[in-house]
UniProtKB/TrEMBL annotation:
SUPFAM superfamilies: GntR ligand-binding domain-like (SSF48008), Winged helix' DNA-binding domain (SSF46785). The lineage of its organism: Bacteria, Bacillati, Actinomycetota, Actinomycetes, Kitasatosporales. It holds the Pfam family GntR. Residues 1-62 form the HTH gntR-type domain. The keyword DNA-binding applies. It comes from Streptomyces sioyaensis. This is GntR family transcriptional regulator. InterPro entries: GntR_C, TF_FadR/GntR_C, Tscrpt_reg_HTH_GntR, WH-like_DNA-bd_sf, WH_DNA-bd_sf. PANTHER family: GLUCONATE OPERON TRANSCRIPTIONAL REPRESSOR (PTHR43537:SF24), TRANSCRIPTIONAL REGULATOR, GNTR FAMILY (PTHR43537). Keywords: DNA-binding, Transcription, Transcription regulation. GO terms for molecular function: DNA binding; DNA-binding transcription factor activity. It comes from the Bacteria. Gene3D superfamilies: GntR ligand-binding domain-like, Winged helix-like DNA-binding domain superfamily/Winged helix DNA-binding domain.
Amino acid sequence: MCTAIRDDIVSGALAPGSRLIEEILAARYGVSRVPIREALRTLQSEGFVTTRHHAGACVAEPTEQEAADLLDVRALLEPLGAARAAARRSPAHLKVLRGLVRLGRERARHGNPADLQQLDDWFHETLAQAVGSPSLTALLTQLRRKIEWMYAVEPPARAGESWDEHGAVLDAVARGDAERARALMAAHVERSLPVYRLRRPLKTEVRDPKPPVNTVRVRP
C-alpha cells in the first residue's frame, strides 16, 4: 500500500499540498482505512507526507533548498554505496549489473534513448541492493525516489560516456576495489548534475524576520 501511494506522489497523480483523506484513499486503492493509515505514517517518516493543523495528512511541498540538498546527499551516499558494493556484492548482483551495462551501451550506441533512464535506474537500484546493508539500501532507494519526485532527468547528450562510466564502476566493484569504485561513482554523480531539472516550481524557503528588540526607555 505504501508503494502505491508513494508512486502516485512521485508521478504527480497526488499533487504537492493535496489532502490525503483516508476514506478517499481507501476507495481509490480498494483497501480498508487501516493499511492507508499505516502507509501514511511511513510516508510521513520518509518526507513524502506532512500533517497540517486542521487539514490532516497532505502531500508534502518540498522547497527549493530541500531539492538542492537531495543532490548533495546523493553525492555523498552513492559513492559510499559503490564502495560497500565492491566489498559485499554477490555473483548474482554482478551478473545483473553486467547485463544492464551491456544493454545500456547498446541502446546508447544505436541512438535508442527511450529506455536508457529505466536501465539507469535499474543499474543504480541493483548496485544499492549489493551493498549488503538493508539500512543503506533503504536510504539509497528512498533518496532516488525523492529525487525522481522533484526532478526530471533530461536525456543526456553524453549517453555513451555515461554508460562507459557505469561500466568502469562495475569493473571496480567486480574487482573488489572499494576506493576506486567510490572515486568513479563520485565523478559520475558530479558529471550527471546538468541533466537534472526541477519538475515544477518549488516553494522558496521563507525565513521568519528577526523579532523586534524590545527597548526600555528610561525617563531622564
